[in-house]
Every structure is written in structure tokens, then in C-alpha cells.
């Protein structure tokens, strides 16, 4: 058909140089993005990076300054929101308080003049999808936060939108409910095969739910990739430290794969030169006591330091190690709370060369 594809799937939503300026300030700067049909894509980034502005431009609630929004090959950049065939779910559920759950869900269909019998059937279906059939006659105030968010989801899906847009839909829920809803939203999205864009500042949410993660910073796209890509192969120090926890060390690269960090020397993949940033995930590191005989093996980096703090967080032990005044955090699985070492102990931190992420110093 000649329609463009990404990873073998037809592109359903495309953003071409999408931009939004407010006076001199740039909220979104020339964003290019292709979302394949049926994929769930996360817009991930810190507060103010332009996630919500991007989503609202896609929804038609904010008018772009520049660029195009293309859905299924049709340019919808100037189409009014109600004609865009998109389902929206916001952080605040925005339910009508005086209407029952069923009426809330039916609203969009009534607006579209769908016949009564069909409305009834589709509302039933949508409520079944979010497991709320039993609560159809309740008012929103008689529901928990998680249940209200499910109503909002049913209301968005009942119109059978071509694209589902979710703006921080889980941030008002407690941690346990958030985990549940994550899986639920993902299951529904996959069962329907619906294309969806999900705004979040929570990296766990982005990694665990989405097919692709779009990391944004200062209105710009920093990296796009699968969750494994952005976590294991971040292309910038920003992505490395925003997606997942990481230790950060500065050093001078010799150009032959060696890097000096203070009085220590380590090896890194590749042959960078000059000032570099070294990043290593805490769970990729091990801790040994100095003089324990467990010295660095082939392919393993070793830096010496002193244990400055031990934190027990249930399933993990976190060791904070002072290495030449820099702090390194090492995480190990907690074995029934055993394995504590004494603060002040001279230790060495070990990690594999291949687990070392290295970045040239960026401005
Ligand atoms: P958050 O997670 O805090 O919602 P965000 O990544 O969604 O952040 P946006 O809400 O898209 O960020 O805002 C992007 C930038 O645009 C911010 O710097 C914000 O201050 C600015 N901005 C948003 N709306 C307006 C507006 N109406 N007028 C001027 N500046 C705005």
C-alpha cells in the first residue's frame, strides 16, 4: 500500500515537527514521532518537559504553533477535538458527579446520537471491560479512586476511539492500586489492539506498561526506544539517570579503553577520550571487603572506598560507599536482613566492564 511502517507495523499516529511556543518560551520543540498501530507509547520526562502539551495537541485541545499531526494517513492538525475520534483519560477523573456510573459512560454515545438500545449494550460491554458491571447505578462519590479511574477509562473506550490518550491516569492512586491498574490498562489496550499514548513522569510506569518509551527533556525528544533499549542502552547521560537509578562518576579517558577516576583506573567499553561521565546501575555492582581475597577478575572493574551507610529497604540492601569523595550506591538482594557490614569498613566495589555506561562530556 506504500504506507509507512515502523518495525513492520503500519504507522497510525505521526507527529511531524510538532511545536508549541508561548511567546518566547518553547513548550514543545519540533517533535517527530511515529506510533505504529496497536502500540502503547509513553511520553516520559520530568515536570515541564512538554508531555502534556504534546498530548493536548494530539487531542486537539491546544493548537500547535508549527508542525503536523497525522492519523491513519490523514492530516488532522486543524480538526476540532470532537471530530478526532480520540478517547481521553486524565489524572482527575472528571466524572459528572450527579450522574450514575452508567450515565457517565453513556454520555459520549448520547452526544453522538447513537440509538438507545445500542448505547445500553455498549455501556454494559465497556463496564464489563473494567469490571464495574455491579456498580453501574452508583454515583462517582460512592466509588474508590481506582473505581472512578476505571469509569473514566470505560467512558473513553465506549466511543471506540481510534486512539486512546492517557495523561498521568494513575498518579492519584495509591501504590498497590497503581500496580493493579497498570496491568489492567495494559491488558485492555492489548485486547482491543488500540493505539495509545500515555503521559507519565514515572519511569516504572513507562517501562512496565509500554511498547515504546519517548524520553523528553526541555520540549525535545531525547531518546525513543523499547523499554529495554532506553534502560540498557541510554544514548545520553540524561536518559541514563532519568530512566532507572544510576551511579555517576567523572573521569579522564586515555583513548585506549582506560579511564582514570581519582586515583583509580577502570576499563570501559569502546575507546573514548577526554573527560567522560561513567554510569553504572546500583544492582550491577558488588561489594567486597578489602583484603577478603576476592579481587578483581578479568573483565571486572574495581574501585576502593569506605562504607558510609547501610540502608535496609526490605527486599534490598543499599550500601553507600565513599570513593574519593564521590558516593556510589551498591544494591544487593537482602538475604533475610543478613549481610550487613559495619559502616567505616574499607571495601571495594566491583562491576563488569560491559556494565559500564560511558558518555563524552556534554555541555
Ligand atoms: P507536568 O508533568 O508538570 O505536567 P509536562 O511535561 O506535562 O509537565 P507541560 O505541561 O507540557 O509539561 O509544559 C511544558 C512547558 O510549557 C512548561 O515549561 C510550562 O510552563 C509551559 N506552558 C504550558 N502551558 C503554558 C501556557 N498556557 N502558557 C505559557 N507556558 C505554558
TrEMBL record:
Domain of life: Bacteria
GO biological process, one term: quaternary ammonium group transport
Catalytic reaction equation(s): ATP + H2O + polyamine-[polyamine-binding protein]Side 1 = ADP + phosphate + polyamineSide 2 + [polyamine-binding protein]Side 1
InterPro entries membership: AAA+_ATPase (IPR003593), ABC_SmlMolc_Importer (IPR050093), ABC_transporter-like_ATP-bd (IPR003439), ABC_transporter-like_CS (IPR017871), Mo/tungstate-bd_C_term_dom (IPR008995), P-loop_NTPase (IPR027417), PotA-like (IPR005893), Transp-assoc_OB_typ2 (IPR013611)
Keywords: ATP-binding, Cell membrane, Membrane, Nucleotide-binding, Translocase, Transport
Keyword Translocase: yes
GO molecular function, one term: ATP binding
The ABC transporter domain, residue ranges: 13-243
Enzyme class of the recorded protein, top EC level: translocase
EC number from the UniProt entry: 7.6.2.11
GO cellular component terms listed in the entry, alphabetical order: ATP-binding cassette (ABC) transporter complex
Statement: the UniProt record of this protein carries the keyword Isomerase: no
Pfam families with a match to the protein in the record: ABC_tran (PF00005), TOBE_2 (PF08402)
Role summary: Part of the ABC transporter complex PotABCD involved in spermidine/putrescine import. Responsible for energy coupling to the transport system.
Similarity remark: Belongs to the ABC transporter superfamily. Spermidine/putrescine importer (TC 3.A.1.11.1) family.
Complexes and interactors: The complex is composed of two ATP-binding proteins (PotA), two transmembrane proteins (PotB and PotC) and a solute-binding protein (PotD).
NCBIfam families: potA (TIGR01187)
Protein name: Spermidine/putrescine import ATP-binding protein PotA
Organism, as annotated: Microvirga lotononidis
Amino acid at each position: 500500500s506504500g504506507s509507512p511502517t515502523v518495525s513492520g507495523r503500519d504507522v497510525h499516529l505521526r507527529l511531524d515537527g510538532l511545536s508549541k511556543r508561548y511567546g518566547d518560551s518553547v513548550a514543545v520543540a519540533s517533535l517527530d514521532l511515529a506510533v505504529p498501530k496497536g502500540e502503547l507509547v509513553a511520553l516520559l520526562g520530568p515536570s515541564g518537559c512538554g508531555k502534556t502539551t504534546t498530548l493536548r495537541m494530539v487531542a486537539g485541545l491546544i493548537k500547535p504553533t508549527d508542525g503536523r499531526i497525522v492519523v491513519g494517513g490523514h492530516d488532522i492538525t486543524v480538526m476540532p477535538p470532537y471530530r478526532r475520534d480520540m478517547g481521553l483519560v486524565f489524572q482527575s477523573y472528571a466524572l459528572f458527579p450527579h450522574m450514575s456510573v452508567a450515565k457517565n459512560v453513556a454520555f459520549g454515545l448520547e452526544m453522538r446520537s447513537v440509538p438507545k438500545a445500542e448505547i445500553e449494550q455498549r455501556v454494559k460491554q465497556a463496564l464489563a471491560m473494567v469490571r464495574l458491571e455491579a456498580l453501574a447505578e452508583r454515583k462517582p462519590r460512592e466509588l474508590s479512586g481506582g473505581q472512578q479511574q476505571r469509569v473514566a477509562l470505560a467512558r473513553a473506550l465506549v466511543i471506540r476511539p481510534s486512539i486512546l490518550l492517557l495523561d498521568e491516569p494513575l498518579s492519584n492512586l495509591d501504590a498497590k492500586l497503581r500496580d493493579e491498574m497498570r496491568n489492567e490498562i495494559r491488558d485492555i489496550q492489548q485486547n482491543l489492539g488500540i493505539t495509545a499514548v500515555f503521559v507519565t513522569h514515572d519511569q516504572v510506569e513507562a517501562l512496565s506498561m509500554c511498547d515504546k518509551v519517548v524520553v523528553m527533556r526541555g520540549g525535545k525528544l531525547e531518546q525513543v526506544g523499547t523499554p529495554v533499549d532506553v534502560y540498557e542502552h541510554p544514548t545520553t547521560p540524561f536518559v541514563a539517570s532519568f530512566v532507572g537509578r544510576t551511579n555517576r562518576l567523572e573521569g579522564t579517558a586515555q583513548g585506549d579503553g582506560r579511564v582514570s577516576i581519582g586515583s583509580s583506573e577502570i576499563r570501559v567499553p569502546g575507546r573514548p577520550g577526554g573527560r567522560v561521565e561513567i554510569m553504572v546501575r546500583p544492582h550491577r555492582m558488588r561489594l567486597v571487603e578489602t583484603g577478603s581475597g576476592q579481587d578483581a577478575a578479568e573483565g571486572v572493574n574495581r574501585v576502593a572506598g569506605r562504607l558510609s551507610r547501610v540502608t535496609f529497604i526490605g527486599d534490598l540492601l543499599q550500601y553507600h560507599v565513599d570513593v574519593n569523595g564521590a558516593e556510589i550506591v551498591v544494591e544487593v538482594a537482602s538475604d533475610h536482613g543478613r549481610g550487613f557490614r559495619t559502616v567505616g569498613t574499607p571495601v571495594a566495589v566491583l562491576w563488569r566492564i560491559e556494565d559500564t555506561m560511558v558518555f563524552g562530556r556534554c555541555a
